[in-house]
Design goal:
With 268 residues, this protein is of the alpha/beta class. It is 47% helix and 12% strand. It is built from 9 helices and 7 strands; from the N terminus they run αβαβαααβαβαββαβα. The strands form 2 sheets. A 5-stranded parallel sheet has the order 2-3-1-4-7, with helices on both faces. Strands 5-6 form a two-stranded antiparallel ribbon. The longest helix is centred in the last third of the chain and has 25 residues. It is globular and about 45 Å long.
Length: 268
């Protein structure tokens, strides 16, 4: 295990060395922070933001762009609370909360879960967090973005970063075709990049994995068209707000060093 250094200058030096090592060997970036020295540990962003305020960040990207993977790496490297709107929705349905019951009723009727319900779920989730957070899967349209801004600004806690992942569509298509999901938890596997330890079986529960019927080229292209229709206005919205940054790459290992350097420079 790593140990935590005490001085801010020391911690910044550690991050600088870690960043340099990541860029020199980006092809071997792993799910956890680079082991710079067995005597130190990478700091927690929630206590080291330059402005003294927590990190409040969104991560955007097309289906299959690797949002969940990047969120996981950021959480493990910096100790930020990562929130997946899909996980929040599934948990509330399972726990039969008030909002979860409304969402379950919509799903049972074959309807999309309304913006109002999703906003309520996210509001409740963010209300439990006092430090830095990263939100994946929300907002998905301008109405949700405006509702989120209203929610945060009411507490004088506006967003301070929005990251967009740009991955070529041919790469995403390959990921989608090879994607398998553990439906109850939302855990996602890829036969090439992140295969389960036992083929067809979830690593944690041992339950069967499923390949979504719409994870095929034709369905993917339709979903991608819908994504662009909804997300292009979102990108413009956040670009005008001055909080949007985009990272490009065809693998998670190519994108994460950019993400890491961004967080180091902006919030450490």
């Amino acid at each position: 295990m790593f140990r935590y250094t005490q001085s801010l200058s020391s911690r910044r030096a550690v991050l600088g060395q870690a960043q340099k090592q990541r860029w020199q060997s980006s092809s071997s970036v792993t799910e956890t922070a680079v082991e710079v020295d067995d005597q130190v540990q990478l700091p927690q962003l929630r206590s080291l933001t330059r402005t003294g305020t927590p990190l409040r960040m969104l991560i955007l990207g097309a289906p299959g762009a690797g949002k969940g993977t990047q969120s996981s790496r950021v959480r493990e490297s910096f100790g930020i609370t990562a929130i997946s709107s899909g996980d929040v929705l599934r948990r509330n349905i399972a726990e039969q909360t008030v909002a979860g019951q409304k969402a379950a009723a919509a799903v049972a009727s074959g309807l999309l879960v309304s913006d109002d319900i999703i906003v309520d779920l996210i509001r409740n989730e963010l209300g439990k967090i006092t430090g830095s957070w990263l939100l994946d899967g929300f907002p998905r349209n301008i109405a949700q973005a405006q509702a989120l801004d209203t929610m945060l600004e009411a507490n004088n806690q506006p967003l301070n970063a929005v990251v967009n992942l740009r991955v070529s569509e041919s790469v995403i298509l390959q990921r989608i075709v090879e994607r398998y999901v553990h439906v109850p938890s939302g855990r996602v596997y890829n036969l090439t990049y992140n295969p389960p330890k036992t083929p067809g079986v979830d690593d944690v529960t041992g339950e069967r994995l499923e390949h979504r019927p719409d994870d095929n080229p034709e369905s993917f292209r339709r979903r991608l068209e819908q994504y662009h229709k909804l997300t292009e206005p979102l990108l413009e919205y956040y670009d005008k707000s001055g909080v949007l940054t985009s990272f490009a790459g065809d693998t998670s290992d190519a994108i994460f060093p950019q993400f890491y350097a961004f967080l180091d420079q902006r919030f450490n």
